[in-house]
Amino acid sequence: MKILCFLLFALTFESCSTSPDSPINAFKKVNDSLEKANRQISADNAYVRYYSEILLKAEINIKWAGKAIDLHDQVELTMVLIEQTRGTLRKMDSLGEDTKTARKLLVNTGFGDTLRTSIEETAHLCEICLVGKGQLPRVQANLQLTRQLIVPEHWSRQLFNGQSTVAALTTLGYFKSQLLKSATLTLKDIDDHLK
What we know:
79% of the residues lie in helices and 0% in strands. The chain is mostly helical. The relative contact order is 0.17.
């Protein structure tokens, strides 16, 4: 019995370990983690809850409700673009190992420019739609790396140029997660001010 348990432990340990020379596996793990975090954000539904509550109280302050609507519309557009991009990348490279796929789709293309601009606009709205400035440091902290990564020069030269497809999927998952967190903070701020 002890030998059987030891054998089971050894097989489990071996199947869980990855070779240190496999960055693809590392990106896949990070990507899976980000997808899990995004599912948790969706499960919590705080973003949708705050937006719905704001719409119910819109008559209290039309201007603030308008900010929420503008932010919501932009976030929805950006999330659709990110998910379409992720789907297209998966179709183009189902294994996620190719280092040219992301570049072909996202670097110096109209589609890539549209996605980058949409991410940039969403980040901008997360900051300017705040009613109070108490949440501004948290929103800015959430968006700090995103802002650095979407600078056009960085986007075209480093972010998606020569990166594996799974690395691009991971990066897009990161953008989605940070934008949703920031938009939720902004909507919470607006909702708090409508009470």
